[in-house]
Amino acid sequence: MEGLPVGQRLKSALEAAFEAAAFTLSSLPALMLAWLCLRIAEAIHAAAAGVPHSTLFGVGIGNDTLSLLRYGFVFLLGSLPLAFIASQRLRIACLGTLWSALLCADAALLQYHWVAGVPLGADLFAYSGDEVATVMASGWQASPLLLAALVLGLGVLWGVLLLSRHELWPRASGRMAGIALAASLAAFALLPARIVPAVVHTDADLGFVINKAAFFADSNLAGLRGQAAQASDHGTLQGQAPWDGKDPHYPFLRAERTPDTLGPLLRRADAPPNLVFVIVEGLGRSFSGPGARLGSFTPFLDELAGRSLYFENFLAGQGRTFGVLTTIFGSLPFGEHGLAALGERMPRHDSLLSILKGQGYDLRFYSGSNMEFDNEGLFLRRQGVDSIVSEKDYGPDAERANDWGYADRDLMDMALRREAAARATPYATIIQTTSMHTPFTFPGKDAYLQRVDAHVARLGLRERPEYRAQREVFASILYTDDALRLFFEKASTLPGYANTVFVITGDHRLPELPMDTRIERYHVPLIIHSPLLKAPGSVKSVSSQFDIAPSLLAWLSKDYGLKAPRQVTWLGTGLDTEKSFRNLHAIPLKQTKTEMSDFISGTAYLAQGNLYMLGDGMETERADNPAALSLAQAQFHAFLKANRQAGTSTALAPEGGALAGWGGERSLHGTPLVQQAGDVAVRGLRPRPDAKRLAIEATFSNSAATESRAFAPLLVIADAHGVEIGETTGEARRLGAGESASITLRANLPRLPSGTYYISVIPSHPDTGRAIGVGQYHVELKL
Predict the structure, then answer these.
(1) Contact 407, 435 (CB under 8 A)
(2) Is residue 674 helix, strand or coil?
């Protein structure tokens, strides 16, 4: 070609390029069939997890096809080097090798999703190399099903590629390749990333139907384009969020106004009390506590909750562990990837720990893991923690459980020994568990696997795929619950126990167990246990981990004279101890280090751009209210903008902020919240005397300025294991603006025998029976 004119040489090169692209286009069926093998394996795995795979399989295939159409240009443009290879055999070898690597990568993304419960996106690059190595070493357990599907897929890939050499195999032309290239580029620019029809109800459903490779690519491209940062500039709403400070340099700075909601529930001691925090890895409400959707697998924690203050509708601020320390102890914003991820660039801030340290408290931390993961050790050292026990401090008498470190039983033994020898008062101790984390290995595992089946039978739970497919997960829950039993049984002998308050919560909900709703990832219990507690009780009002530090400091300030900053950067406004369901908070939720698309404001729940109504039990219903959606989005964007600014600043508050004693106006109401116009709420339940059958009196109220929609009062009755045994629907009615009404519902059942039952009363749609207001769910009733 050297002697040809430039124009002819360019034409020849272009023809060769299109011919190479046509060769790749003709070979694509091989890759599509290989992908189908992985999709079938994914359907089998989803079926074992309770996902309706038969209904959703077609949606998954549709998303796979859409992904190939959107990213087809990458395959076609990537085939240009084939123009320099004349041998068809060598071309097939190159394509086969490249696509085999792609298939293996896709299988790895599937394995990650099966283990982590969420698809892998840009969060891969939010971790350091050492952290990624730790995750892979501890969590990588290749599924035999996936390995078989991968081997089959590779066989199909190479078999069809070799078959494509046959002269009868249909061939694409260069013109067809050009049309396909243009169509793919148009699809990438114009089409949505995925198809999500109405049959997709849960996050588990969504995780099944999306293409994992496309999700990974889309997530990372969005990060590179800075879409998240651009979105954070979309609208602000000054004065509509508790973090809207008046100083533009410190958007979270505001006057301290947290009320003391804990003091009235606790007896006053002679000295400032000790604090012990137990942060349980993966502890979620769906498998712990009364009315747990999967049945409760924490018998000890349930018993402890019965002697404690128990928050039923409590939320973690994060869907993974990366933010739990900053959220609980600092009520801090997240920054881009979690505030602790900034390392030495972490902005200066106050926290409950640093404030207690400055007023004479000893600070101690116990874990069985590596404290440099998620920069937890750095964060704790910055707060002034005196003693940090981690994996390096365990001796030969303890057995390492896995790459994460030592099991929870060894952790509790370590904490009990060290605490017995430590200075008694005042102190704040933190214990962070790890055994409820993949790979779910711990001493005595076989015995706990057998206990899972016995526990399911004892609870009388209906057979569910989760109990078979996730026996190791449920075994780890039972194991950790036993470890906590050991700790609390012996904690009563520790110095200062009579003057100690224990705070127990989960860092997030286990992702390995299927979730009915997206918010279930954040729904964790909160147990406040103490010899100082006047009486046990259950709280249905919503609070979050952002509210823990402000409330504890407000209590210590009012009852014990500890000083607090005059101005704070808390995201929380304090724990709400109202027994009936309500939410007075605005709560941002960050699922992973790189995804933050969830926000709660009152009863409005914004999730990935969709608006839901939040009810008791963290039940969610899709809401059609453009005005409320717009207000929720504006509040969320105001937070995102302030959050990004906090993540790039050197301090969250000016240096040298003054401390002060108790005083000033105090209220949980931090901001005007998004409200659903016309919502009806159930404010109270009580049994009524009836000689023949169960009767429940419920108070329904309409707090809106307009008349409510028509609703039918619905009473649902479940037995002690949460199994529904009957329901009753009252006559449809409306409530005027501000009106309340007491309605008695009589169960359509014969007189129930003595025992424990759970009742739910819901304002329901008169035709569909779906909730259209805020109900009261799983209220314990003893007959």
Answers:
(1) yes
(2) coil
Nearest-angstrom CA–CA distance, 321 and 307: 28
Lowest mean pLDDT among 442-456, 482-496, 639-653, 720-734: 720-734
Strand partners, 311: 526, 539
CA dihedral 265, 268, 269, 271 (to 10 degrees): 110
Rounded to 10 deg, the angle between the 174-190 and 53-78 helix axes is 120
Structure tokens at 563: 């000083």
Residue 521 one-letter amino acid? R
Alpha-carbon gap, residue 26 to 12, rounded angstroms: 21
**DSSP secondary structure of 425-486:** SSEEEEEE--SSSTT---TTHHHHHHHHHHHHHHHTPPP-HHHHHTHHHHHHHHHHHHHHHH
pLDDT in tens, 20-30: 888 888 888 99
Side chain identity, residue 179: I
Tokens found for residue 188: 């990438």
CA dist., res. 345 & res. 296, Å (int): 42
The distance of Cα 609 from the centroid of its chain, to the nearest Å, equals 17
Among 534, 479, 464, 151, CA closest to 283: 479
How many angstroms separate the first and last alpha carbons of the chain?
Answer: 94
The length of the chain, given as a count of residues: 783
Q: How far apart are CA 714 and CA 731, in angstroms?
A: 9
Cα 393 from chain centroid (whole Å): 31
Please state, in angstroms and rounded to a whole number, the distance separating the CA atoms of residues 718 and 715.
10
664, with CB counted inside 10 A (0-12, 13-18, 19+), is exposed
What gap in Å lies between CA 338 and CA 415, rounded to an integer? 28
One DSSP character per residue, 213-279 reads: HHHHHHHHHHHHHTHHHHHHTS---TTSSTT--S-TT-TT-EE-----SSGGGB---SSPPEEEEEE
Q: Mind listing the pLDDT tens digit for each residue in 306-329? A: 999 999 999 999 998 889 999 999
C-alpha pair distances (Å), 317 with each of 504, 505, 628: 15, 12, 22
| CA proximity to 434, closest of 353, 374, 518 | 374
